Amino acid sequence: MTTSTPLWVPLAVAIVGVAGTLGATVFSQFWSRKMDERRWRREREAENVRWTRERDERAAQWEREDRARWLADRRDGYAASLADYHTLTKAIDRVYREVKRRNSRASDDELSELAELEANWERSCNSLRLIAPKKVMKAIWMLYGVIEEQIEVLEEGELKPKKVLARVNDYLTVYKAMQEDLGLSDGTYASE
Known about the structure:
Elements: H1 8-102, H2 108-128, H3 134-156, H4 162-182
């Protein structure tokens, strides 16, 4: 006697086998996609952290470079202003001695030389307006007023030695303000 297996059993086994294979494939693809998404998310987060760190480092580097550039610009501007100031004061002192020796007012040539030197100094001071702090500019313009008074005295021929002392004190105020701005306030020339 032969027993025969009903036809639906092998078909059911085949269908279950195919469905199991397809289900395993779908499940493995779903699981793989989920794992890939997690990996991509972790990589993106790591990249974002790295990019943020690099951006912050670049911003800090740019800030350091900007500070160094501003410091160099102020230092160069201060040096130019002081050089023009010294050139002007040397000329004022020379004209002062000549006026005193002649016992008269300054000549037109001397006054035009002083006016030109004063204009040079004023230009170098004006260029500092963009980069120098208010304290430095206030001290410079106070000194500028003293210099203008001295030139007026030379124009009139009435010599006043006290004005020279005022110029020295105002110069020390300017110099101290510049030193403090540059971070060099060790009091080398400027007194308290």
